[in-house]
Amino acid sequence: MHSRDENVDRDEPPVVVPVTADPEGDEELIAAGPRLPRWLVLAVIAVAVASGLTALVLKNDGHPTAAPSPSPTPSVISPAPEGLADLSVQDFAINHAGELYVLTSPPERLVSVDPDRSIRARVRAPVGAKLVVADPPGDLVWVIVPHRGISDVSIYAGPTMAAVGQLQVSATVVAAAALEDQLFMATDRGIYRGWPGGTATQLQGYTGPVQAIAADPPRFRLLAVSKSYDLIRVGEDTAQKVRKLTSVRAKSIVVTDDDHIWLVGFGQPSGSRIGSLDPQTLDVTLLEPGDPQADRGAIGWTGGSVFWVEYADSASLVCMDGSTGLASGTYSETDAPVVSVPGVIYAVRGTGVVKLPSPTACRG
Fold first, then answer.
1. Which terminus of the chain has fewer CB atoms gathered within 10 Å of its CB, N or C?
2. How far apart (Å, rounded) are the C-alpha atoms in residues 319 and 315?
3. What is the number of other CB atoms lying within 10 angstroms of the CB of residue 30?
4. What is the C-alpha separation between 335 and 43, in angstroms, rounded?
């Protein structure tokens, strides 16, 4: 089993930031989250450790069928001085400075949160909004309302939260990523690109359904995965199929700050699997044989120096080193999605947002 770094900051528990809405739904009142009893926390950690040990099943040749589970990271909820509405969190995103943008409903709000967890601004969001994307430098925030066959995009200035534009996409947006103040959208009809003051246009080359997309800033491109597991290289004007993914049928593609690219999804014939993607050749190297017991695969999210994996039917998030792909921590009883930059990690717990600790082994 991989264990946590012995120099982990043990005095930084995750902070839950729920608040309650006022009766009229326009203002929220700050409320502290409850601290779990010590016996319950110890029980949760003990169960997580036992589960990690049980998951390490050996093949006949003596090699593990899945990467060893790391020791669980303490995940006690403690009261928060500042917070978010105790509402249904639709989605959230983070920029390089650690500022969080949370989309809630109902009522529909876009909330910006500083790295110290204080709410900086709160504005109305479009009805039906499901996705939010933050431009990494923090200049723009994109809110997406997907409909059947069409999608609406509202654009906000990150520093002021003022509305600065709108786009309409002639397709259903399922995922999106920002690059150089432009939004690239994975849809049921290929990939679209738009920017403030412009129009949303379909990129030439690939017009089938796309399920995942990630920005690759060092090479000024994006990488996407189709519903039929085609790997797609996305430029400013074109989206070209590179190859069919067979060894790992990726549901997610993530790019970490150190230029490593990872595929997370299903193996063949079943089970979860993680693969490394060569930045130049886009060849796939499997990280490990995969876990056939996780027959519904896994989903991944990009961090800064790490990436995150959640296995189907699991209530835990696994922190993976962005350079090696090795598990470095587990956060139990925590739901996806998760976003992070070094030193700042947010995830979902219940209907609220949780700020998780960022120990040495998993800085975010």
1. N
2. 13
3. 15
4. 19
For residue 163, what are its two tokens? 């509305």
| Residues constituting the chain | 364
Using CA atoms, how far apart are residues 195 and 217, in angstroms rounded to an integer?
A: 17
Largest CA distance in the chain: 64
Burial 326-358 (b: 16+ CB within 10 A, else e): ebbbbbbbbbbbbbbbeebbbbbbeebbbbbbb
* Distance, CA of 230 to CA of 244 (rounded, Å): 4
CA distance 171 to 186: 9
Measured between alpha carbons, how far is 9 from 18 in angstroms, rounded to an integer? 24
Q: Of 205, 202, 178, 175, whose CA–CA distance to 191 is shortest? A: 202
283-315: pLDDT as tens digits:
999 987 777 767 778 899 999 999 999 987 777
- Cα-Cα end-to-end distance for the chain: 21
Global pTM value: 0.79
Give yes or no for a contact between 15 and 355, defined as CB atoms under 8 angstroms apart: yes
Q: What is the Cβ-side half-sphere exposure of residue 191, based on CA atoms within 13 angstroms?
A: 35
Confidence grade of residue 83 (pLDDT, cut at 50, 70, 90): low
Q: Given 3-state DSSP classes, what are the helix, strand and coil percentages for the chain, each rounded to the nearest 5? A: 5, 50, 45
Angle at 270 between CA 269 and CA 272, to 5 degrees: 135
Instruction: Report the alpha-carbon distance of residue 313 to residue 316 in Å, rounded.
Output: 9
Residue written as tokens 């009522």?
107
Pairing of strands 201-202, 210-216: unpaired
- For residues 187 and 177, what is the distance between their CA atoms, to the nearest angstrom? 12
Strands of 173-256 (E only): list them: 173-179, 182-187, 190-194, 201-202, 210-216, 221-226, 230-234, 239-244, 249-255
Place of tokens 């326009």: 26
Number of H helices, E strands in the chain: 1, 32
Residue 38 φ/ψ, nearest 5 degrees: -60, -40
Q: Which two tokens stand for residue 132?
A: 């939010």
